[in-house]
Amino acid sequence: MEFITTPSLPVSLAILCPLLPLLLGVIPSSTANRLGRHAALISARLALLAFGFAVLAASSLVVNGPSSVTLLEFASFKVSIHLDALSAVMLLLVTFLSAIVTRYSINYMAGEPGQGRFSKWLSLTSGSVLLLILSGNFLLLTIAWVATSMSLHKLLTFYPDRPAAILAASKKFIVSRLGDACLAGALVLTWQCFGTWEFQELFAATARIDGAISQACTTSISVLIVAGALMKSAQFPFHSWLPDTLEIPTPVS
């Protein structure tokens, strides 16, 4: 196992964006509920701080340019982060929305006995999305996307006594697992065809593809990724659970 601890300034700032909301996620739900409104306040402040770091990371990116770093390497598995113009824009968008939603949730969920638990899973969801955005390889992206889905499921089932909410959560759970299966298939094919999950290596490899086998690989992988993205993003025709989310807390919607 090899640790690499010298990321560039833009990447160092960007890494803090998912780490901050994920901090609240490690707190047990029972402890979060005891904190109640304080947990919601912590969640909102962490989200605002993450947005501040996203602004700094994007500003630093303009000066230093895109960069990648491998934070942890073990056998064939790497935890790598990549920051470029696209991921910086998405980082700014998600942290901005997260800051608004978590702030809104403080008063919206006031008085709810499960306010702390709600704030915990809301932070975990946003942290998982931010990790997905910054993923430097396909494996980490898939893991982050699964974590996003599982965290969102906890929010969808926040009111277990509301049949419509449970129905929406059940529909989404099934569709998301089908999406996970597509991404898992794409992961296997990617490794078999290219021997790597690193995005930069994959981009370089696809630029020099030749032969029917390579074309077949890239086509199959692309179809599986698109299918997985459609399912996990609730795109038509996999959106049937969305109308039922009116039964869950508004901040989740």
Structure description:
With 253 residues, the chain is mainly alpha-helical. The chain is 70% helix and 7% strand. It has 9 helices and 3 strands, in the order E-H-H-H-E-E-H-H-H-H-H-H. The protein has helices at 9-25, 29-35, 37-64, 85-108, 115-134, 138-156, 163-194, 199-206, 212-232, and strands spanning 2-3, 67-74, 77-83. The chain has a 3-stranded antiparallel sheet with strand order 1-2-3. Helix 3 (37-64) packs parallel to helix 5 and helix 4 packs antiparallel against helix 5 (115-134). It is globular. The model has no long low-confidence stretch (mean pLDDT 84).
Layout of SSEs?
Layout: E1 2-3, H1 9-25, H2 29-35, H3 37-64, E2 67-74, E3 77-83, H4 85-108, H5 115-134, H6 138-156, H7 163-194, H8 199-206, H9 212-232
Q: What is the distance, rounded to the nearest whole angstrom, between the alpha carbons of the first and last residues? A: 41 Å
User: What topology, given as strand order, has the largest sheet?
Assistant: 1-2-3
Fraction of residues in H or I helices: 55-70%
Care to count the β-strands?
3
Listing every helix as H and every strand as E from the N terminus to the C terminus, the arrangement reads EHHHEEHHHHHH
- Content-based structural category: mainly alpha
Unreliable segments of 5+ consecutive residues: none
DSSP helix count? 9
- Shape, principal axes of CA atoms: globular
Average of pLDDT: 84
As a whole number of angstroms, the C-alpha radius of gyration is: 19 Å
For the biggest sheet, the summary is: 3 strands, antiparallel
